[in-house]
Amino acid sequence: MSFKRFIEFFPEIAEKETRRIILRNDPKIPDGEYAFVDSFCEDKDCDCRRVYFDVLQIDPEYEPIHAARISYGWESLDFYLSWSPYLPSKMAAEMKGPTLQPSQKKTLYGEQFIELFESILLVDPAYIDRIKRHYTLFKAKLGGKAIKKIYKEYDIYSPCPCGSGKK
Ligand SMILES: [Zn+2]
Predict the structure, then answer these.
(1) 58-64 — which CB contacts under 8 Å span 24+ positions?
(2) I need a labelling partner for 149 at 20 to 30 A (CA). Which of 27, 54, 138, 140 fits?
(3) CA of 51 to the centre of ligand 1 (A)
């Protein structure tokens, strides 16, 4: 499975909506500015409802440093279990996350960035809604089967088809 950053399709929205967190005197993570850059899977027919965050340390004078990659699924555990009746619950729980990507297990501050994500971003429903909206835009851009499934769930993802603009 390959992933693409939201910013590659929608640079203007990403410019405004990518979350940056500035840390000063945090007991666990070095001082700095960290951006949570969202990516989604590029399979146009796959409705996996997961986001992959590249956590980048931003320094205006240098190229950003890749600090961690976190995956997170915003749906219920049952949603991920329903992917396959044979999917072990441990794997479904990993799909839901938040979790470090397997190649990232040894990342220096990986667990700390997960804690940061959980304590600041995951508790912010407006932010999670933003990520869902990015996912919907991204899958609409790909134009496969996934977006048709997403649009069927009007109550969560898109305005009412009557045109009122209400969810
Ligand atoms: Zn997918």
Answers:
(1) 58/20, 58/32, 58/33, 58/34, 59/32, 59/33, 64/35
(2) 54
(3) 9
